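Long-time lurker, first post. I've been practising inverse folding by hand and with some scripts of my own, and I keep getting stuck on stretches where the structure tokens seem ambiguous. Below is the full token string for one chain I'm working on. Before anyone asks, I'm not after the true native sequence, just a reasonable design that respects the backbone. If someone could post their per-position residues I'd love to compare against what I wrote down in my notebook.
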């Protein structure tokens, strides 16, 4: 196992650490990458790779407190699930499920009781329906649907009117630092481990 260090901002302190192993047939294979985004000496992003060198997971510390707030899981190098801890308590508040790289379903714990209370389903990249659990039993009590005929959100027939207007769209997807890091690394200065 070899560790390669890179200095992205050229301050003579490494802020990207690549863990690679050598394979006689495939050559150098990246198995892990740690990144210090804000140059405070702590790792803010950890990317793990499979045997093919494809990203398998990525953990990100969005508020730079030393705890990972977003965990993304990949299958065949495509995002499959993203867990977000938006109140920074160590538990996922929102879990996004993806199909072919597009959001398919979002499950949220809006009242922070550790149970899912909102389910959002998407069709062709558009919000299709939102289910809410109003009594905390983990079962949907009310569905709101987006109807083509009225162009907006509507309630299912026979259900009570909803106060879920604020849930009509999921929060914007948090960006992954992966793409920016890959572009920046192309211009990064390798760090000489000997200090010369």
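-- Answer (accepted) --
I ran through it position by position. Result:
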């Amino acid at each position: 196992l070899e560790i390669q260090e890179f200095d992205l901002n050229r301050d003579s302190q490494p802020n990207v650490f690549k863990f690679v192993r050598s394979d006689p047939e495939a050559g150098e294979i990246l198995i892990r990458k740690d990144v210090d985004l804000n140059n405070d000496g702590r790792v803010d992003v950890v990317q793990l790779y499979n045997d093919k060198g494809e990203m398998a997971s990525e953990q990100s510390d969005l508020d730079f407190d030393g705890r990972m707030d977003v965990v993304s899981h990949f299958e065949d190098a495509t995002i499959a699930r993203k867990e977000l801890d938006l109140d920074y308590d160590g538990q996922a508040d929102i879990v996004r499920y993806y199909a072919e790289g597009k959001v398919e379903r979002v499950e949220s714990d809006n009242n922070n009781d550790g149970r899912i209370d909102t389910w959002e389903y998407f069709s062709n990249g558009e919000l299709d329906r939102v289910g809410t659990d109003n009594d905390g039993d983990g079962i949907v009590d009310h569905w709101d649907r987006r109807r083509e005929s009225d162009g907006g959100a509507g309630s299912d027939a026979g259900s009570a009117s909803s106060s879920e207007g604020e849930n009509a769209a999921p929060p914007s997807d948090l960006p992954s630092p992966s793409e920016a890091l890959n572009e920046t690394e192309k211009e990064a200065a390798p760090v000489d481990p000997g200090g010369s």
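A couple of notes from the structure itself: The chain has a mean pLDDT of 81. Residues 22 and 28 are 5 Å apart (CA to CA). Happy to go over any region you disagree with.
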